[in-house]
């Protein structure tokens, strides 16, 4: 009886997890983009003069959405018991910044 219950639970878990398809593709190549840099503390005039945007490179991410204006990517994901996907390390980059 216990074995039958375990087999039933295994089948049910597999079916639930397969309900949500993972439809996201890995980035083909790294994205190089500029990001803003902010300072919230006291800085000198020279530090302001030397301030530049951060040069960023993003790779090993999956594409969530790609539009003419921006691209949204994520670096990690997990599936819960119901098969729903949750995302982490989500970045939306305006295409003008790339």
Description:
- By secondary structure, this protein is an alpha+beta fold.
- It has one domain (2-97).
- Helices cover 22% and strands 35% of the residues.
- It has 2 helices and 8 strands, in the order αββαββββββ.
- It has helices at residues 2-17, 45-50, and strands at residues 25-26, 31-35, 54-58, 62-66, 70-74, 76-79, 85-88, 91-94.
- The strands form 3 sheets. A 4-stranded antiparallel β-sheet has the order 1-4-5-8, with no helix packed on it. A two-stranded antiparallel sheet has the order 2-3. The chain has a two-stranded antiparallel ribbon with strand order 6-7.
- Strand 6 (76-79) and strand 7 form a beta hairpin.
- It is elongated, with a radius of gyration of 22 Å.
Gyration radius over CA? 22 Å
What is the domain total for the residues? 1
Strand line-up across the major sheet: 1-4-5-8
Number of strands: 8
Structural class: alpha+beta
The coarse silhouette is elongated
Note the beta-strand portion.
25-35%
Report the mean per-residue pLDDT as an integer: 81
Could you tell me how far the N terminus lies from the C terminus, measured between alpha carbons in angstroms? 60 Å
